[in-house]
Amino acid sequence: xxxxxxxxxxxxxxxxxxxxxxxxxxxxxxxxxxxxxxxxxxxxxxxxxxxxxxxxxxxxxxxxxxxxxxxxxxxxxxxxxxxxxxxxxxxxxxxxxx
Length: 98
Description:
Elements: E1 4-8, E2 13-14, H1 17-32, E3 36-40, E4 46-47, H2 49-71, E5 72-75, H3 79-97
Parallel strand pairs: 1-3, 2-4, 3-5
Helix pairs in contact: 1-2, 2-3
């Protein structure tokens, strides 16, 4: 398709590994279709580490750095959210390299 799809979340606090997995499966399908994805986090106040790990870090480990950085864009209002996502990805990558 090669469209840009905007993905936003209901609620201001994103938590739970289960919800992260559900959202990752949606994101994986969009990427498999060739879509670019913009993840809109402007209304999100907090993200748990388990949610960030299950959605972003697992996805990153599956699709790789190149696809993740080229196909996924973020809209955020808080650098704290970026930090949680980055930390989750870094932690998972470190686990896999051990």
